[in-house]
Amino acid sequence: MRDIRRLTVDERLVDIRQIPTDRFVYPDRFTDVVVEVDLPAIRPWSWLCEYEGDSSFWAATVAEQYPGRSLVPFAKHQDTDDVFCFEGTDHTGDPPVLVIHAFASPGTEYRGQWTSFDVWWEEMEEHRAAWLAEQEHEHEHEDEDEDPR
After folding, report:
1. Residue 84 · residue 75 · CB < 8 Å
2. What residue ranges in the chain does DSSP mark as E strands?
C-alpha cells in the first residue's frame, strides 16, 4: 500500500498543472477552491488534488482507457469508479464537467455532464446535504438498534 500524503496548497497547484492539457484553462471557481488552506468537504466525493499522486494517477488512467477523449479529472466518488472531469478540449475557462465511469468499456464510460463547474458545484452541494442527512438518519437508527446492556 502506498503512503498517502496530504498536499499543501502550493503542491496542489503544481499537481493540477502537471496534468497534460492543450491550452486548457481551469474555471476560476475551481482554482479559488483549490487554493483554500482546507479544501471544502465534498464527501462522498473526494478532491484528486488533495493527496499526492491522485490527480496524475486518474489523469493517466482515464487517458489510457479512453484515448479518444480529452479529460482533466478533478474529483472522484469515494464509493464508485465515477471520476469527475473537465472537458479538456474546452479552452474557454468554463468547461463542462463530465462523469466518467473508469474501467468501463470504451463507449460506455460516459455517465452524464453539467454545463460548468459552477452548476456541478451547486448540484454537488445539494447531493452532499442529502447524503449527510441520510448518513445521520442511518446513524440514529443504528443507535436505536444497539442493545443497551
Report:
1. yes
2. 45-47, 71-77, 82-87, 97-101, 110-114
Q: Tell me the Ramachandran region of residue 65: left when phi exceeds 0, alpha when psi lies from -120 to 50, beta otherwise.
A: alpha
In tens, the pLDDT along 50-100 reads: 888 888 899 999 999 999 999 999 999 988 999 999 999 999 999 999 999
Cell numbers describing residue 1: 500500500
H-helix or E-strand containing 131? helix 117-145
From 59, 71, 56, 70, select the one nearest 7 (Cα to Cα). Answer: 56
Asked if 48 and 12 count as a contact pair (C-beta separation under 8 A), the reply is no
Task: Quote the cell numbers at residue 16.
Answer: 493540477
0.85 exceeded by pTM: no
The span from the CA of 115 to the CA of 107, in Å, is: 21
